[in-house]
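Quick check before the chapter quiz. The format below is the same one you will see on the exam, so make sure you can read both the input and the output lines.
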Amino acid sequence: MLHLPIAVCCAALLFATLPAQREGRGPREQGAPKLANFTVEAGALKSDKVRQGEAGYTIYLPNGYTDEANKEKKYPWVVWLPGFGGPDEFQNRGGAKVLDRLRGEDKIAPMAFVVFRGAGRRSVYMNGEAQSDTEDLITGDFLDQLQKKYRLATDSKQRAVMGVSAGGFGAMKIAMRHPDVFGAVAVHSAAILPADPDDLAGMNETIVQRQLRTGIAKEIGDPIDKEKWGAHMPLAIVAKKKPEDMKGLQIYFDAGTDDSYGFCPPNEQLSKLMTEHGWKHLFRKVEGGGHGWGTPSMDECVASSLQFVGAAVTGKDAVDAMSAAKPAEEKKEAKEAVK
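Here is the expected output.
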């Protein structure tokens, strides 16, 4: 069985008390970057799934969206789930620039990109959180309201979900639990935890109980129920479900070998398990890469994942397309990960 170091278990998910991602953090850019290929809007969500605060979004709409010639066109779209660093990290730490560049280079088709803003400061993307029933909010009112306000595709195959760190965990597990809602998922430095809570390797009981009291006990039990826990953990989902249960879900994920929270090994294990169980996917181990936005390789990783979801939401086999596009030196590693 996998025994994760305690830093992993405490860092990003259900029982987290660590601060937002700090690794390699440089000065943030001031204000929104100037984009040549997208316009940006922000809005609030109304939902009875929100108990405290206000949930909302920032949407990047491609040039041409307001053109008369496109007034009937519905656009494929992507949802981004932030990590503990917050929703502004995509804008302020390079993600928006990468999105803009790829569109300008015609490496992704015109599509909308939406950053989810949770009602609380941080989220582990579960129902029962103090601020909201977050998973139900994302898969329900969030999608419905965005699709009513903007011309966004309603076909799940034209929707993708992405995320980083805790948001990477959220995106992966929501996509796996709702393959009828999202047709593709792409995540970075995902906080992958063991399939069996007994393998939480030294987790302090006080921390566990404190987090359970925030409300997620109804989702995972108090004490933790192994069956309920496993229903949210990607490693357990892959072990239990067949690829055909995923309705063609297209999957990409990456992790850095120097991730300070130790998330590379469990992500590698997830890729290995997917291969063993016949889940087609693309996993990239980033040599020397750190954790999420704290690493210089993040721009490159985001460029790869955006091209992956861009291919997926426009009807392509993204795993095959991205594998074929890899440089020669990476193809051997890709072959091992893509099954």
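If your answer matched, good. The two ends are 23 Å apart (CA to CA).
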